[in-house]
Amino acid sequence: MTKTITPIVLAIWGKGGSGKTTTCISIASLAAAARSDLIAGSADLSLIVARPNAFDLTLALEWVGIVQRAGAAPLVALTAAPPQRQGMLAPAVKAARTRLTKAGALVWSHQITQRQIHPELIAGGLSVADLPETALAHEDYKRLWVSLCRREENNG
User: Which residues pair with 61 in a beta bridge?
Assistant: First the structure.
C-alpha cells in the first residue's frame, strides 16, 4: 500500500535577519527526520544540496540513500563550489561528482559558485530574485531553477 502525505505549503515572512532561514531549516529538518521516506516518495523532485567537502558529501550520500530507498531519483546540486578555471573543475568538485555518481545520484551538470552575496541580500530584506538577471548569483540559481522545471516536465 502506497502511503501519501498531505502537503503543507508554508510561507515564511519577515524582515531580513528575523530568523526566516533558521526557522525554515529547523522545521524542514524535523519534518524530514520524522517522515523522510514518506516525503521522498511523495515529492515530485528530490533536490539534495551539498558543498563539495567531506562533511557535506557524507550527509548528502545519506540523503541519496534515503531518496533511493523511497523509490525516487535524487538530484544533487553542488553549492559553494570553487569556480571553474579555464574550463576545468576544481579538484574538490571533481571528486564530489565522482563520489555522488558512484552512489547512483544524478548530479546537476552545473554548480552554484556565487553564494557570497546572500548575507548582504538578507540584511537588506532581499533575495536573489531582486538581483539583475546579469548578476552571477542570479544566473547560477536561475540555471538550477530552469533545470528543475525541465526535470519536472520530463517526469510529468
Answer: none
What pLDDT does residue 156 have? 47
CA-to-CA separations, 143 to 128, 133, 146, in angstroms, rounded:
12, 11, 5
Residue found by looking up cell 539534495 in the block: 48
CB 132 within 8 A of CB 138: yes
Question: What DSSP assignment string belongs to 59-97?
Answer: HHHHHHHHHHHTT--EEEEE-SPPPPBTTB--HHHHHHH
The number of CA neighbours under 13 Å toward the Cβ of 53 is 7
Low-confidence ranges of the chain (pLDDT < 50): 1, 156
Predicted local confidence at residue 124, as pLDDT: 83
Cβ-count burial of 49 within 10 angstroms (0-12 exposed, 13-18 middle, 19+ buried)? middle
